[in-house]
Design goal:
By secondary structure, this protein is an alpha/beta fold. It has four domains: 51 residues, no CATH class; 162 residues, Substrate Binding Domain Of Dnak, Chain:A, Domain 2 (Up-down Bundle), CATH 1.20.1270.30; 159 residues, Rossmann fold (3-Layer(aba) Sandwich); 229 residues, Rossmann fold, CATH 3.40.50. 49% of the residues lie in helices and 11% in strands. The longest helix is centred in the N-terminal third of the chain and has 35 residues. It is globular, with a radius of gyration of 24 Å. The two termini are 44 Å apart. The model has no long low-confidence stretch (mean pLDDT 96). The structure holds FE(4)-NI(1)-S(5) CLUSTER with Oxygen (BF8). FE(4)-NI(1)-S(5) CLUSTER with Oxygen binds next to helix 14, helix 21 and helix 24.
């Protein structure tokens, strides 16, 4: 039985429904195994949280001072201070957005300071993204002269640091050099050009604290400004800096899914978002002495598997097999085959460590922001890198040593492996599809009807991975090319959709494109910050076709929203005129329908509120040329996306 929430106009799934609908056979096996072992996962904790608080779900609980919490009801339509529902709802959303901005900002900080450390000769790593260094140097109009690549990278890093923390009234440099002219003009007219990540976080929190701004439209303005800071300072900043650091990804073939783990090998998972320490750890794991150590303990070798965005980063650059995403991190521990998980930052849930203790798995944390009680802690700090090599060696050795001590009585590795063709980036997509002119022509002719970027987290509020996979299959049938990042990409990789063999489920137009150009129908372009690559592609195609972004047959799709970081992902695209479809209602009172007052349970009528009307109605559409659709039923969501793309094509006069 699922959990009924009539006022949200949707239900949430229980464990049985997840077991029935989740698409990966390996997931079903592991959910049953973990329950059979007497251990709990997020599914059990989600059940024990039911019913979830309606005020929290609707965003109508205000906890922004210590007079509250205040809840908006018919009897009390304002908080104690006089705050309105609209003010509270938009303030809650902007606070989520800037938490996500802070997370990506911290990620960007680590990567950018690593570049600075290398440029200054303090960090023993070599910059691999030479092409990106010269491209950025040119775009940022640096004096290249006889400077070395490291010197140029250091100068670029200084600009990226300014974009993270500038306090004076100047624009984010990456926005100036990468955003479309038409949008820069619009954002300027709307007065929402951002200064930096840090300034916009400060201003968002300032505006929403007790006795500050009570004009929801002004807070919505700051929301848009913060979304632009999120996009250009922290998404572009992190993604481009990572390419400078570790190189631009190249497409590669590999195998993914839970079945990549091996019973007779040391199994090490790498988890998080910022793969600097792990780069060094991989170097140490490949040392003959560490490989020999594994054999000395009776292992036949060492398997590395990727989780979350560190997983997708390593898949993209080295073809290291990815295993699963944020809500699969407990399932993979439940295989009983994982010797060690090395984590850096973000999306590492405490439940993973609780289960790791049940199965004797060692956890090693490598970032001071992500401490976990009971884990071995060997942090990387780019400003104090002296012990990096030594710590990486200790991590590699500790991970291998875990093999000899671990309880091996509860191992079950589902025999499910999937072929995948990942590692796509902006340049490789354009090259593989014959260049921008050719891509534009494929779109115009309708061989590719549109492009959807289907991305983001998982949520317990929809059946795990079902929305991701069902929506994408329907889009492929309708000749819509799909790009993917983050946790969604794990679902699609494991479902075999990032693989040329998936050609059979595509419509005739897309089938022809795949056969002719040899690309898979779903292109995995990396971690969440690598939505930068997709946005660059959308911008370039619109420019090539001399059309504003808002007119293009593009869509952002976030079927299973979860982390606060996800708020800014959708808004980044919305700001560029690309409409969103999200798979579960945001914490905004659902405008349509609402329960009829005094009627029997289940009777509904149409409702309305300013925030929902702004994002999902005409407000954002009139201002930005895009809006947010919400649809938790995946078949209906796919229908909405197809209709949106069809409408865009009709307006362009394209068949
Ligand atoms: O940045 S998709 S749960 S892993 S936040 Fe986290 Fe969401 Fe996964 Fe990567 Ni993105």
């Amino acid at each position: 039985m699922s959990y009924k929430y009539p006022y949200l106009n949707t239900d949430m799934p229980d464990k049985n429904e997840v077991l029935q609908k989740t698409p990966n056979k390996a997931t079903k096996e592991l959910i049953r195994k973990i329950s059979g072992d007497g251990n709990e996962t997020y599914l059990d904790r989600f059940a024990s949280q039911q019913p979830q608080c309606s005020f929290g779900l609707n965003g109508t609980c205000c906890r922004m001072c210590q007079w509250g919490p205040c809840r908006i009801t018919e009897k009390s339509p304002r908080g104690i201070c006089g705050r309105s529902q609209d003010d509270i709802v938009i303030s809650n959303i902007i606070r989520s957005l800037v938490s996500g901005l802070a997370a990506h900002g911290r990620h960007a900080h680590e990567i950018i300071y690593t570049i600075k450390g290398i440029a200054e000769g303090k960090i023993n790593l070599k910059l691999k993204g030479i092409t990106r260094i010269y491209e950025m140097a040119e775009k940022l109009e640096l004096d290249i002269g006889n400077k070395t690549e490291n010197q140029l990278a250091g100068e670029i890093a200084d600009i990226l640091v300014e974009d993270l923390g500038r306090m004076d009234n100047k624009n984010i440099r990456l926005l100036e050099v990468f955003a479309p002219e038409e949008r820069k003009k619009l954002w300027g007219e709307l007065g929402i050009l951002p200064r930096s990540a840090a300034y916009e976080i400060m201003e968002a929190l300032h505006m929403t604290t007790l006795g500050s701004c009570s004009d929801w439209k002004a807070i919505a303005g700051q929301e848009k400004r913060s979304a632009l800071a999120y996009c250009y300072s922290t998404l572009f900043g992190s993604s481009l800096a990572t390419e400078i650091l570790f190189g631009i990804p190249e497409p590669n073939e590999t195998e993914v899914n839970y079945g990549v783990l091996k019973k007779d090998h040391v199994n090490i998972l790498v988890h998080g978002h910022s793969p600097v320490m792990i780069e060094k750890v991989l170097e140490k794991i490949n040392l003959p002495e560490i490989q020999q150590l594994a054999r000395d303990y009776g292992a036949k070798g060492i398997v590395i598997g990727g989780l979350c965005c560190t997983g997708t980063e390593l898949l993209a650059r080295y073809g290291i097999p990815s295993v699963t995403n944020i809500l699969g991190q407990e399932f993979v521990i439940g295989t009983g085959a994982v010797d060690c998980v090395v984590v850096d930052m973000q999306c590492v849930i405490p439940g993973m460590k609780i289960l790791a203790d049940c199965y004797g798995t060692q956890v090693i944390t490598t970032c001071n922001s992500n401490r976990i009680p009971g884990a071995v802690h060997l942090p990387f700090d780019p400003e104090k890198p002296e012990t990096l090599d030594e710590d990486a060696y200790t991590i590699a050795k500790t991970a291998v040593e875990a093999f000899k001590d671990r309880d091996r009585s509860k191992i079950h590795i589902p025999d499910v492996k999937t072929k995948a063709y990942g590692g796509w980036g902006y340049e490789s997509i354009v090259d593989a599809l014959g260049g921008l002119d050719n891509m534009a022509e494929l779109l115009k002719q309708g061989r590719i009807k549109g492009i959807a970027t289907v991305v983001g987290c998982n949520t317990p509020k929809v059946a795990y991975e079902n929305n991701h996979v069902t929506i994408v299959k329907k889009l492929l049938e309708s000749d819509i090319l799909v790009l993917t990042t983050g946790c969604c990409s794990h679902a699609l990789l494991n479902a075999g959709l990032c693989n040329r063999d998936a050609v059979d489920i595509c419509g005739g137009g897309l089938k022809g494109v795949i056969s002719e150009y040899g690309v898979p129908p779903v292109l995995a372009v990396g971690g969440c910050v690598d939505n930068t690559r997709t946005l660059r592609l959308f911008i370039s195609l619109a420019e090539k076709l001399k059309k504003p972004m808002k007119d293009m047959p593009f869509m952002f799709v976030g079927p299973e929203p979860g982390n606060e970081k996800t708020v800014g992902q959708g808004l980044s695209f919305l700001m560029h005129g690309v409409s969103n479809l999200v798979g579960f209602p945001a914490p905004i009172p659902v405008p349509n329908p609402i329960p009829v007052k005094g009627s029997a349970d289940g009777e509904m009528e149409r409702g309305s509120n300013n925030i929902a009307d702004y994002f999902g109605g005409n407000g954002a559409m009139e201002e930005l040329g895009a809006k947010i659709y919400t649809e938790p039923v995946p078949e209906l969501a796919a229908q909405t996306i197809k209709m949106h793309i069809k409408r865009k094509r009709n307006n362009l006069g394209w068949k």
